[in-house]
Amino acid sequence: MVVNNPRLITLLSEEQKADLASMEKQFAHHLEYTIGKNRFNLKNEDIYKALGHTIRDFLIDRLNVTHERYRNENPKRVFYFSLEFLMGRTLMNALINLGLYETIQVMLRGIGFELTDVLEFETDAGLGNGGLGRLAACFLDSMATLNVPGFGYGIRYDYGIFNQIIANGSQLEMPDHWDADGVPYEVVRSDISFSVGFFGHTETRVSGKGKLQHDWVPDETVLASAHDYPIPGFNTSTVNYLRLWAAKSSEEFNLDYFNHGDYMKAVQDKSISENISKVLYPNDTTEQGKVLRLKQQYFMVCASLQDILTQYRESTQNLKELPNYVAIQLNDTHPSIGIAELMRVFLDNEEMDWEPAWEIVTKVFSYTNHTVLPEALETWRVELFEKLLPRHLEIIYEINHRFLTEVRNKGILSDEEIQRVSIIEEGNEKRIRMANLAVIGSYRVNGVAELHSDLIKKTIFQAFTKVFPEKFNNKTNGITPRRWLLQSNPSLANLISKRIGNEFTTDLSHLKKLETFVNDADFQNDWRLVKQTAKDELAKLIKSETGITIDPKSLIDVQIKRFHEYKRQLLNILRVIALYRRIKENPSREMTPRTVIFGGKAAPGYYMAKLIIKLINNVAWIINRDPDVADRLKVVFLPNYRVSLAEKIIPGSNLSEQISTAGTEASGTSNMKFMLNGALTIGTLDGANVEILEEVGPENIYIFGLHTEEVFRLKEAGYQPADYIRKNDELHRVLLMIRENFFSMGEPGIFGPIYDSLYYTDNYLLMADFNAYDETQNLVARDYLDETTWTKKSILNVARSGKFSSDRTIREYAKDIWQVPLLDTVPPKTIYKLPQN
Questions:
Q1: Annotated catalytic residue within 49, 567, 642, 808
Q2: Distance between CA atoms of 616 and 73, rounded to whole angstroms?
Q3: Which is catalytic among the residues 575, 601, 673, 793?
Q4: 808 and 676 Cβ atoms separated by less than 8 Å
Q5: Closest Cα to residue 837, out of 427, 417, 495?
Q6: What is the pLDDT of residues 772-821, one digit of tens each?
Q7: Do residues 629 and 623 make contact, with C-beta atoms less than 8 angstroms apart?
Q8: Gap between the Cα atoms of 371 and 250, Å rounded
Q9: Do residues 175 and 188 make contact, with C-beta atoms less than 8 angstroms apart?
Q10: Does 546 participate in catalysis according to the annotation?
Q11: Does 310 have pLDDT greater than 60?
Q12: Is 214 annotated in the active site?
């Protein structure tokens, strides 16, 4: 199978031609011997699988070279602990980072296939729920690109975030068996497995040194089996890995049950054990679900710490030196049980004294906080913890006792503040505060945007700042430009590179050079053409996915993110209803055509979020079929929002909705993705919106609504949403349409809870912000009609997005928290060239 098209081959450099010859041989081998196909019966799916195995070979070669280098140089390593890694699709990202996109494109065209069609057969690895998991994925890309010896640790869920289906306007959840057809780029490490225990009891003994020692005797044991996903750096030879653990039973089946004919009972233990890695975020509204969730957290950290210590001992025996060679970042509180687990290993297995063990632990871990909402901070019932992890509970009690004794002796906290910093929450039901454990047991604690980092020091961790003023710092989130520009929007990336070169691919600050061309009429025309082409493609996607025809020249107004009341998708749809009312009252009125797009999933047990999805779809059904509206307003809900869908929506967007209640969003990263792709932001002064405003200037962003301090003051004064509704007749009428079943004739009363929540409580202040939001949206509509001015704003948003690269974020982590050097760049065999369409 040889590419015999001379015209195609002339497009390649000499190095790429050499790569092409090598790739052809590997590809032909995998096509015939790995997946058992020949050239007479090939489909796109076959090409995808063979190509995945071919690129896997290439990645493993570089992975082995990278780790040989790490073994020789023995640098400090970073281990990123996260229960979520929202990787999306992997193959195209690997081709771009490895510099092989064009070579593979030529190879496949030579045999009659298009790479873009082949790549569509990859299923998203939906091993995360939202921004938390996507941030982890971006960080892995940046660590490899910057040659940081950095590795991810998580769980290989059999079923990722559910597939969302919309039926009669409502969300239905279907299983996401993301690996059903195999994962060609996965490396199964059958030789790497560790035992993880649960339940049982602790015993005490006197050691040979005369010390009282503790031993945990688990009742249940599970094996954690390693699966690696190579992470290639961009334009470097470095390939790190994401290691995910799959749960395996320590025994295939109980032979005694089997011999007595009870076949189901014989395999029951195996099934229960392997449930640990079955599903991302099991429903924890039941006791069984809570146990499984805590099991998952401990399973991941226990296996990962064993793996880290095993690797560490290959080069260094002295555990006191561990902080000089190992840094562990806790992505939220989910893996914070690792602090107690490492103490258990040091105290029980290594027979260390408490003080030196604690000193090592508190220099190894760092903790990233992702919320300012107290109710979102993870806690566990002591009773449950004691049942599942009895030895760890003893250690947590000891950590807490020593910490509180020290704090009381210093006399810097009041009794009320001491209660707030305690790991144990007292009351009718004692609970373990995992965030407090993470703060006490970590070397550094960071927020993920300047506003967020400031808020956590003033609110949830205020007392801790008196004890540990040096611990707290900010690391504003970022996104990888390889995924969110080069991969998702190659036409825009090429336009940019023609004007300023390719340096922006690894240093996004180079985008600042685009400001030179902001008044260039030819560049503006090229910019508009790229954006319009992306909008045309988005219109085709919407038609194929939903059957809805939109005007691709309309203002494309997008809110895609996890559904939660604080993110205020409800505020957006209320304003859409208001627009609809204005059209119905005056069918001939002139207005800027607008397409409002929603996408996102609600947690299966989150009733109100699912009801808001239902409302959006019901509103869309009526508006999109009303002849009075025509093409002036369309509402679209794109189902099953995921990374690969975001990559198609964001390039075609004009307006990015970032409208959370001020003081509730930690950072946000979708705001950065839209900005990098030339969309303008409408938003509150919340999360990273504050820093986006600082970068682009107030004339290039649309900020509205209450500020954080005003939100706090209004709530303290006794906020009454009904007061705002009574002052706004249009808002009142919008709410009446909801209450009086205008959008639910066939299901009367279904939206009553939405009306009641807005009228009587309105926890996220939609009524207080509605007028400001509406007026700002009117300004957006007017500005959009000025084509030249809007284009300039779009160019400046991209030009000033350099701060929001995850490369910048990782450089700051490496310097300020992990204290790891960026290793010298290792030039790759193939130098990156922007992919051409």
A1: 567
A2: 56
A3: 673
A4: no
A5: 495
A6: 999 999 999 999 999 999 999 999 999 999 999 999 999 999 999 999 98
A7: yes
A8: 37
A9: no
A10: no
A11: yes
A12: no
**CA gap 469, 458 in Å, rounded:** 12
Beta-bridge partners for 228: 187, 243
Cα angle, residue 815 at apex, residues 814 and 821 outer, rounded to 5°: 65
Which one of 370, 634, 808, 833 is the catalytic residue?
370
Q: 218-232, 311-325, 437-451, 671-685: which range is least confident on average? A: 311-325
Helices (H), 411-459: 415-421, 434-441, 450-458
Could you tell me the two tokens for 255? 């032979």
Q: Output the six-digit token pair for 163.
A: 């597939």
Paired tokens of 162:
């559910």
Query: CA–CA separation, 426 vs 422, rounded Å?
Result: 9
Distance from chain centroid for Cα 312: 29
Residue 567 is among the residues annotated as catalytic for this protein: yes
User: Could you say which of 444, 562, 575, 632 is catalytic?
Assistant: 562
Tens digit of pLDDT for each residue in 351-396? 999 999 999 999 999 999 999 988 889 999 999 999 999 999 999 9
Q: Which of 212, 161, 75, 12 is nearest to 562 (CA)?
A: 161
Catalytic residue from among 391, 561, 601, 632:
561
Burial class (CB in 10 A: 0-12, 13-18, 19+), 827: exposed
Residue 611 has pLDDT above 70, yes or no: yes
Give Dmax (Cα) for the chain: 91
Determine whether 76 is an active site residue: no
To which residue do tokens 């975001």 refer?
Answer: 646
Phi, psi of 98 (to 5 degrees): -85, -10
370 has catalytic annotation = yes
CA-based torsion, 551, 554, 560, 566: positive or negative: negative
Helices 101-109 and 14-29 cross at an angle (nearest 10°) of 60
pTM over 0.90: yes
| Average pLDDT over the chain, rounded to an integer | 93
562 is catalytic: yes
- Contact, 520 vs 526, CB < 8 A? no
Which member of 66, 371, 480, 669 is catalytic? 669
259-294, pLDDT tens digit by residue? Answer: 555 555 545 566 677 899 999 988 777 889 899 999
DSSP 227-251: EEEEEEPTTSS-EEEEEEEEEEESS
